[in-house]
Design a protein that fits this description.
There is one protein chain. The protein has 510 residues and is mainly α. It folds into two domains: 247 residues, MetI-like fold; 224 residues, MetI-like (MetI-like fold, Orthogonal Bundle). 74% of the residues lie in helices and 0% in strands. The protein has 23 helices and no strands. The longest helix is centred in the N-terminal third of the chain and has 34 residues. The protein starts with 8 loop residues before the first helix and ends in a 12-residue tail after the last helix. It is found in: Cell inner membrane; Cell membrane.
Length: 510
Amino acid sequence: MRSTRWLALLPLALLTALVAVPLSRLSTDGASALSLAFLSDPYYRWRLAWSLAQALATCGLALLFGLPIAWTLARFDFPGRRWLLRLLMLPFVMPTLVAAMGVLALFGPQGLTGIHGQDTPWLLLYGNLFYNLPLLVRSAQEGFARIPANRLMAARSLGATPWRVFWRVELPGAMPWICSALCLIFLYCFSAFGLALILGGQRYATVEVEIYTLVAYELNLSDASALALSVLAVASLVAFGYAWLERGLARPMRGQVAQRCVPSGWRQCALLALAVGLLVLLALAPLAAIAWRALWAGPAWRALADPEVWAALANTARFTALALGGACLFGLAHAFAARRSVLLGTLAFLPYAVSPVCVAFGLLLVYPRLSASLTLLIGAYTLLAYPFVARGMSATLDAVPAHLPQAARTLGASTWRVVWRVLLPIAAPALRRGMAFAAATALGEFAVTLFLSRPEWMTLTTLIYQRLGRPGALNQDSALVLSCLLMLLAMVAFVLIEWQREGDDDVAGR
């Protein structure tokens, strides 16, 4: 539709002002600061090496645990399977601070397990796995489920064992889904901030935490720019690989897919029990630990009567509502403008490829006078949230048969009437899901808020972080109670995302 092409100006203006210009400034400052002395500093080399190592280790662990779980969910049908897939959406909408508090509730100084894992790399790796294992499970499960049944039957008829069928037929067929999920997991872990800030400690903090420390506490913008440039370089390479791998998902597999069967025999039952047990341990246990610890918090529940908590809750709701409005505006504009533009459709991935810390730091460099303005804060929230609306709507609009809007036009409907009466009703489920993801993103945003917010704009995430930094068991327990409150708010978004349909296998958005 020609009359909707001007809508491309809205997302392009947002991406230019809040991504392109800040990243250009970061690249300029970082290139000038990226000297041999900087690269030879063992402290910064350790930060870069550990950031890469923990991201790669998380990918390996997710692959090790996720593949058998995904294969089991794709091949077996059992009571509660649909609800288990729905529960896998919980980590997608959980704020990072809630995930960190869940890990501490299990393995912290007063954790339920009695295992003191502080000041070790395992806390961060477990937190990364909690956050990203469902991503690989859902993606690989979709890949395994789409393999045509005739391929499996042909391999078995030729005498291949089940193990050989898996390695020679099923795994190669699902590899595009698996590789794309691994690229996203690497990006999420390499640019992790909230989890690394709480769980990494002084020794195992990532580059993102170091950038925040250099800016907020040391005012060392030169080294921060050089580190940010390093992060952008690595993230750009991985994002390019992800975009290249995603093309494999567009190649349809012909043939009827294999039907799921009820597990029979002790081996299949044991595999199913192992898969469910791993999911509970790695993806659901931290959330259950938060709820259990919060129930026994005792006097900490009085924090809910604190005016500071209600002010933070009001700010969280206000910022989420404003960001959701902006996400709808820019997401819909991007989706309709990208219907005939592959380039615009690709640009919707841009906010995924850059970390919130780099975005916030770049905004501080480019717009120093707006560093404490509500406009810049909401703009950053919108930037991180609107791609969920844009991507979901774009996929749905591309699938709309061309004859439907054409029939409306032949009956005299204007372009905007076609959009309002034909396209939007068809795409309404995708719009609701995108809005729910956008709301969950804004609800748990942490890095941008730390960089760009004022003290009077404290949100629940920043309040939890403050309570964790104060001494005393009561402050730790009140942080758990507030995390439980934030988890409940995120679950509302989960219901909005997943309650409308049974088979949601979209794993790209978080």
